[in-house]
Write a structure and sequence with these properties.
By secondary structure, the protein is mainly β. Helix content is 5%, strand content 28%.
């Protein structure tokens, strides 16, 4: 019997057994000690985060996007937002934790409020106080301070901030020409910091609006697919109001064009009509007094405006409309065959008598 070989085999089996004992089997707890949560890379985690969810010292799991961790198990999606500090699912309706569909919670800037899980400009009529969402507040509280219908400011986020009798945060009383962003005075004319008189800055850009004088947001909040017609969000696919991404609506019809419903941009009425104009659905030369224009746009009737179509520019100008056989004297079409008013093709009449000449009644030129 070869005892040396038997000893080597026994030693190998001992090494394998030790290795297997060191590795936790399926369902066994990893080496995190007495861990009430879950184990991640040898470190015990609370097990309450959707990014490290688990219990009983088992390996941590990463929940699917939008899911929340409850009782150490990935469960139904979070309709609100995930708090980045606690990793818990919040309602997503507060200014300090705003969001939806399981995304990270957002802290709304001063002057904006959380509406339907998104920070937006206030929408209330409140001349004496301030707006907190759609609600008019007195504007005298430290956490809801303001006046003139601006968004309420939370003075408490500023060190030692209190709301004064003037309904301004104490730290912003010296900000008279711009707006207060919670820490410093801003000029008040920027889209992301709009306001005046030391009121809380409003982020107009957050709701697809612009900051216009006097320091107020103007436009259409959250108008992402259509265009802004005044303060109304229009679909953006009509000739009268064409556009997208919340920009100002363009009147294609006023330009003699039409709105392309797919691109929401003004395009020529008649394609492939670069030098003429569109008469109904037909491309014409664009040099007639009743059909004047270029670029495939709608033809203009210069005659109705007592004007004439300039053949070079294809635009209406001064002259005598439809004066084809005679000449134009002021705005009146003359026969063009007299010595004092000689000419043709609607051109200016010439006074042949000044030069001591006469008008050729056939050629309609001075000879």
């Amino acid at each position: 019997m070869n005892w040396s070989r038997i000893a080597v085999a026994i030693g190998a089996l001992a090494i394998i057994g030790a290795a297997l004992a060191a590795c936790p089997g399926e369902g066994e707890a990893p080496s995190c000690g007495n861990c009430p949560g879950c184990c991640e890379n040898g470190v015990c985690q609370p097990g309450t985060s959707p990014f490290a969810c688990g219990t009983g010292g088992l390996l941590c799991q990463t929940c699917n996007t939008g899911q929340s961790c409850s009782g150490g198990r990935c469960g139904a999606g979070c309709n609100g937002c995930i708090n980045g500090t606690s990793s818990q699912c919040e309602s997503g309706t507060s200014n300090t934790a705003c969001g939806q569909n399981g995304q990270a919670c957002t802290l709304c800037p001063n002057g904006t409020v959380c509406v339907n899980g998104a920070c937006s400009s206030p929408t209330c009529t409140c001349p004496a106080g301030c707006c907190q969402g759609n609600q008019c507040m007195p504007g005298t509280a430290n956490n809801a301070c303001g006046t003139g219908g601006a968004g309420c400011a939370n003075c408490t986020i500023v060190s030692g901030g209190t709301c004064t009798t003037a309904r301004k945060c104490a730290s912003q009383t010296s900000c008279s020409t711009g707006c207060w962003d919670g820490k410093t005075c801003q000029p008040g004319h920027m889209a992301n910091a709009c306001g005046l008189g030391g009121a809380a800055c409003v982020d107009c850009a957050a709701t697809k609006q612009q900051c216009e004088n006097p320091g107020k947001c103007k436009g259409c909040p959250n108008c992402t697919t259509g265009c802004c017609n005044g303060n109304t969000c229009a679909p953006g696919n009509t000739d009268a109001a064409c556009g997208s991404a919340g920009g100002a609506c363009d009147s294609c019809s006023a330009k003699g064009m039409k709105c392309d419903a797919s691109t929401k941009k003004c395009v020529p009425l008649c394609p492939n009509c670069a030098t003429g104009c569109c008469w109904g659905s037909s491309c014409v030369a664009g040099i007639g007094d009743t059909a004047c224009g270029t670029g495939g746009q709608k033809c203009v009737d210069c005659a109705t405006k007592s004007q004439k179509c300039d053949g070079a520019t294809r635009a209406c100008g001064a002259g005598c409309p439809n004066c084809i056989t005679g000449c134009c004297e002021g705005s009146k079409c003359q026969p063009g065959s007299t010595d004092f008013a000689c000419g043709k093709n609607g051109g200016p009449c010439a006074n042949c008598q000044v030069a001591g000449k006469t008008c050729d009644q056939v050629q309609k030129v001075c000879n």
